[in-house]
Design a protein that fits this description.
Helix content is 38%, strand content 22%. With 504 residues, it is α+β, with helices and mostly antiparallel strands. Helix 5 (210-220) packs across helix 8, helix 12 packs antiparallel against helix 13 and helix 15 (471-481) packs antiparallel against helix 16 (487-503).
Length: 504
């Protein structure tokens, strides 16, 4: 039995080493389970069972604890022992004492072995869930690198693998508008909260939470990480713009410059991780009027007058164009008469003030009421006529095929370089197409698909996605692609202009 005990404790030690689950944890689980097994086998309560497991000595003892009762009161052979029988064991026993009766391990071994097997499995699962919960709870309000495992376009949800933190769902309302997710893609998400459930930890994650921006800056800006610069407030419209107010406790450190970094490198790194989202960094001030003015930039504040404890109005003029919409049918800006809501808040999700105003203007009209738009109202996309599509575009439908030798412009796809006689455009197409074919041949379908996506990308989108070149740089580069005179000269000039703007 000693050998079996040794094997038992060696198995526990191996689990501790391989799974990171402590032997003490498993021993306690096994002891509890053996107590249950003894209770069931002998029909006794918890206080009548004793289990001792000592990994240091290798001892494994199970015993019944019996109450000493008068012989005439004895009726339960497992939980009780008559005084006469008890005094045969030890003459000093009296009624009310308790006798410890060891159970023979060979008789109890089958029950113990079955129980231990079940409990070890259950204990491992519970311990792993506990470790998983502890791991992800330590990352609450932090950034986690996640991998996309599944995309459900119908429900709009994205399943993510968080590594040791388990899995999580990125719901539609926590996704950045315009972002496209693909299986195998890695992205950074913000852990909003972690809730323990019977099935394991439920992790709530977000790509839109202001905390994501704050943590990214903490990682990129040493002055924020060490506490010299403090992020006082963040207002975010995910995918569009973020405003962040910062303050420095060191008068010699400019908090805004620290966040921007040399040549704008720090803020550029954060912008890249947010998919090109614009970030405005303003200096926080205890002077409310000064802070409001900076926060509302680039809007021009007409007047801000506040004393400590005083409440007044901030004036923001709203002109006619503030309520205008572009009409394709009329080819101009139009203000429709009606009720408009003016909303003021920290973000679109946190509105502090909503006020309705009546604006005079043209009579409301539906420019898509014409019969040619019926097919769109029915969502009958299979039967859209050329006339209906042209009416929607408000101009003639472009030709179905490119002019093979025509110039490439800002709204053309990169793959159109295929039709060019040579030069940069055709060279780029050939290189990407060759790489795509190689990827297909070696079985890397995902990378091949990514290259096809690049080939079909419009030049204007290439500028915005890469966040390396400006629109003007791309337009100048297209002069090179189209073999225009002084194309490279124009491109270098735009590059110099962008660098100067970045330094400023």
């Amino acid at each position: 039995m000693a050998a079996a005990n040794n094997e038992f404790f060696e198995a526990l030690s191996m689990l501790e080493h391989e799974r990171g689950i402590t032997a003490e944890y498993l021993i306690e689980k096994i002891k509890a389970a053996i107590v249950i097994a003894v209770k069931k086998n002998y029909e006794v309560e918890d206080d009548h069972v004793m289990v001792e497991i000592d990994p240091n000595t290798g001892k494994f003892n199970v015993a019944l604890i019996q109450d000493v009762v008068a012989d005439e009161d004895w009726y339960d052979e497992h939980s009780e022992i008559g005084i006469t029988e008890a005094q045969h064991i030890r003459k000093s026993y009296q009624v009310g004492d308790r006798v410890v009766t060891p159970l023979k391990t060979k008789d109890f071994g089958r029950i113990a072995a079955q129980t231990a097997k079940h409990v070890i499995r259950q204990g491992i699962r519970e311990a792993e869930r506990s470790q998983q919960l502890s791991e992800i709870q330590s990352r609450a309000h932090d950034i986690v690198q996640a991998t996309v495992t599944r995309v459900d376009p119908e429900k709009g949800i994205v399943a993510l693998d968080l590594g040791k933190g388990g899995e999580a769902i990125l719901p539609r309302n926590e996704q950045v508008p315009g972002e496209v997710y693909t299986e195998g893609q890695t992205l950074q998400v913000y852990v909003v909260d972690v809730v323990s459930t019977e099935r394991g930890p439920r992790v709530m994650i977000s790509r839109t939470h202001p905390g994501l921006v704050k943590r990214l800056f903490e990682l990129e800006v040493p002055e924020i990480y060490d506490g010299t610069v403090e992020v006082k407030a963040i207002s975010r419209e995910a995918g569009a713009r973020t405003k962040m107010a910062v303050w420095s406790k060191d008068a010699n450190v400019n908090p805004v410059s620290a966040c921007i970094g040399p040549h704008g490198d720090r803020v550029a790194a954060v912008v890249e991780k947010l998919g090109g989202e614009k970030i405005d960094i303003v200096k926080w001030s205890e002077d409310v009027s000064e802070f409001i003015s900076a926060a509302l930039s680039p809007a021009k504040v007409v007047k801000v007058e506040l004393l400590p404890g005083e409440e007044k109005t901030v004036f923001l003029p709203l002109g006619e164009r503030s309520f205008a919409v572009w009409s394709c049918a009329k080819n101009r800006w139009v203000v429709e008469e009606g009720e408009y809501e003016l909303c003021v808040g920290a973000s679109c999700r946190d509105l502090r003030l909503v006020h309705t105003v009546h604006v005079a203007g043209e009579a409301p009209f539906d420019e898509y009421a014409a019969p040619e738009f019926d097919v769109y109202r029915r969502a009958d996309v299979q039967h859209v006529s050329d006339e209906s599509f042209a009416a929607l575009l408000v101009h003639d439908i472009p030709p179905a095929r490119w002019e093979e030798r025509g110039a490439v412009d800002f709204n053309d796809a990169i793959s159109r370089g295929k039709y060019l006689p040579g030069g940069l455009g055709k060279g780029l197409y050939n290189a990407l197409e060759a790489a795509r074919r190689v990827m297909n041949l070696v079985g890397s379908k995902e990378n091949a698909g990514n290259l096809m996506y690049v080939l079909d990308m419009l030049w204007r989108n290439a500028a915005r996605m890469a966040n390396v070149f400006s629109d003007d740089q791309i337009k100048a580069l297209l002069k090179v692609v189209n073999k225009e005179k002084n194309g490279w000269k124009h491109f270098l000039a735009e590059t110099k202009k962008k660098r100067a703007h970045k330094r400023a």
